[in-house]
Specification:
Elements lengths: L24 E8 L18 E3 L4 E3 L5 E5 L4 E5 L5 E2 L11 E4 L22 E7 L5 E7 L7 H12 L9 E4 L11 H8 L6 E3 L18 H7 L4 E5 L2 E5 L3 E3 L12 E3 L3 H12 L6 E5 L10 H11 L5 E5 L6 E5 L11 E5 L29 E8 L2 E8 L8 E4 L3 E2 L8 E6 L7 E6 L5 E2 L1 E5 L2 H10 L16 E8 L7 E10 L5 E10 L1
Parallel strand pairs: 1-8, 9-10, 10-11, 13-16, 16-17, 17-19, 23-30
Antiparallel strand pairs: 1-4, 2-3, 2-5, 5-7, 6-8, 9-20, 12-13, 14-15, 18-19, 20-21, 22-24, 24-28, 25-26, 25-29, 27-28, 29-30
Length: 521
């Protein structure tokens, strides 16, 4: 874990005089922080050509590393980290690459926002440290961690974080709904996730909003105090990453409902920032967008169309979300308003909290919290290799090899085997996955993709409705699983104990397998 930074030293503010209160332009420096002390020492040079933004406009530093941008009374300035350089991170692994300018501070809200920052500093300086960034690397992706309280933060710590401590991933991302409305828990949550020991980025989710805010402009005040800008960009190795805020808060609701007065969208300023940002990025470079609300379902159509227009000419682009508490690979095409030469891959990640930390507790006291599509809670691993990428799923506290769940009756009659079904929930499966099965060492037979509820999840719900329900919070209603395959068992199988094997080959050509034992009578 990188050492803690001295208070605001990374912006070199302590040694700088304040600019006049009426100033409407911010200026500063991006420099090579050779000794890592967060201050520009006499021998440390400014860095030319580094992008700096104010949330709408982007400028490149001049030959001396200096930049200028317009400022208003609520502006966050940030550096767009170039490849081969690192921004500071704090003791919890949170990147510190920004300066928040709110002279009067945030409005009074239930959860504290940014305290008054006073007038603009004479210079807002961003330190960068040179480092090697390989062409091939991995990143950890958490869907909604969505903890309500310390007890659920402890669930997260034991269920996912302990198994990732010491990870060699380049960085991690939580894709929104970091918390479940109680924004006072940010520090405790960040302290737990920070134990992994890598830089950790965070996306704003609808449950991370200041729900008592009157409008979208002030709904992320606590998020800004803790994490900085709700949208920004950075490079790592050969790839360009953009963190987006696609939750548009519609204002406090009269009945006090805390979770749902929002729509999906980006807003004019963010779209302009994205336009200017992507204009700087070479067309062939891999671009990865991180957001909370998927591009299917809740996203406002005109804003989704505007986003599509910015991505369609790029042959290497991926977008990643969470929010729905199930896992799905979506390939967006003409029927979705996408005009690119090939469909756009949008990945809806599994959630770390699964079904909101519900279900019966296991031997460790942690709810099994199976997601609504029958997939275990867990996380994804993004592997980048040049302009190529791969996505893998890992179930919490389970071996990496566990990639599907099979369902079949325990016993089938030999004369009725053709009426029984084998069902495979291939967790990371997509419409482009090929799934087959065989009995013993027999021939491989195809399985067909179907859209229905996972039968194992249905069995859990049936148990909850029985006269002897298990302990724990009830699971949510099932959804149709987007990665389920089915096939009838072959008629005339020999009597006795039989071994079924299923193999699934994804669109990257990788194969996973699973086995199931059944008896034929």
């Amino acid at each position: 874990m990188p050492r803690p930074l001295r208070s605001l030293a990374w912006l070199s503010l302590a040694l700088l005089a304040a600019a006049p209160a009426a100033a409407r332009e911010a200026r500063g420096l991006v420099f090579a922080d050779a000794n890592g002390n967060g201050l520009r020492d006499a021998e440390e040079r400014g860095l030319a050509g580094v992008a700096v933004a104010n949330g709408r406009e982007i400028v490149a530093t001049d030959a001396a590393g200096r930049w200028r941008l317009p400022a208003d009374e609520d502006t966050i300035f940030f550096v767009i980290k170039p490849a081969g350089w690192a921004t500071p991170v704090d003791a919890q692994g949170l990147p510190r690459f920004y300066y928040v300018h709110k002279p009067g501070g945030s409005p009074r809200l239930e959860h504290a926002g940014v305290p008054p920052t006073g007038p603009l500093p004479a210079s807002i300086d961003f330190p960068l440290r040179e480092r090697a960034e390989p062409a091939r690397f991995t990143a950890l992706l958490f869907g909604d961690t969505q903890t309500r309280n310390q007890k659920e933060i402890d669930y997260l710590a034991h269920d996912l974080i302990e198994g990732l401590i010491g990870s060699e991933a380049a960085f991690g991302v939580t894709l929104g709904d970091i918390l479940f409305d109680d924004l006072s828990q940010y520090d405790a949550l960040n302290a737990a996730v920070g134990q992994i020991g890598i830089p950790w980025h965070n996306v704003l989710g609808n449950h991370d909003e200041n729900v008592d805010a009157a409008d979208d402009a002030h709904a992320d005040e606590t998020f800004e105090r803790v994490y900085g800008p709700a949208y920004y960009a950075f490079d790592y190795g050969p790839a360009h990453f953009v963190v987006l805020d696609d939750v548009l808060w519609q204002g406090k609701v009269a009945d006090g409902y805390r979770g749902g007065n929002y729509t999906g969208g980006l807003g004019a300023d963010q779209l302009e920032f994205l336009r200017q940002d992507l204009a700087r990025v070479p067309r062939e470079k891999l671009v990865v967008l991180f957001m909370h609300i998927p591009l299917v379902g809740e996203c406002e159509e005109s804003e989704r169309a505007a986003l599509f227009r910015l991505l369609e000419t790029r042959p290497n682009a991926l977008s990643v979300s969470a929010h729905y508490h199930y896992l799905e690979h979506v390939f967006l095409g003409a029927e979705d308003g996408w005009r690119g030469a090939a469909p756009h891959h949008h990945f809806i990640n599994a959630t770390a909290c699964g079904s909101w930390w519900s279900g019966a507790p296991d031997e460790a006291g942690i709810p099994h919290t199976t997601m609504r599509d029958g997939t275990p809670n867990g996380y994804a691993i993004l592997t980048v290799d040049g302009a190529d990428y791969r996505l893998d799923f890992r179930a919490a506290r389970r071996p990496a090899e566990e990639q599907m769940r099979l369902w079949v009756p325990e016993v089938v009659r030999q004369d009725a085997a053709g009426e029984a079904e084998l069902i495979a929930n291939v967790y990371n499966g997509s419409p482009r996955t090929r799934v087959e099965f065989r009995v013993g060492d027999g021939p491989w037979l195809p399985m067909a993709r179907v859209e229905r509820e996972d039968p194992s999840y249905a069995a859990l719900k049936a148990l909850e409705a029985s006269d002897t329900p298990p302990p724990g919070a009830k699971l949510p209603k099932a959804v149709k699983c987007p990665h389920l395959w089915a096939a009838p068992l072959p008629a005339g199988m020999p009597r006795g104990t039989q071994r079924l094997q299923v193999r699934a080959t994804d669109h990257w050509g990788r194969t996973v397998t699973a086995w199931r034992i059944l008896r034929v009578e």
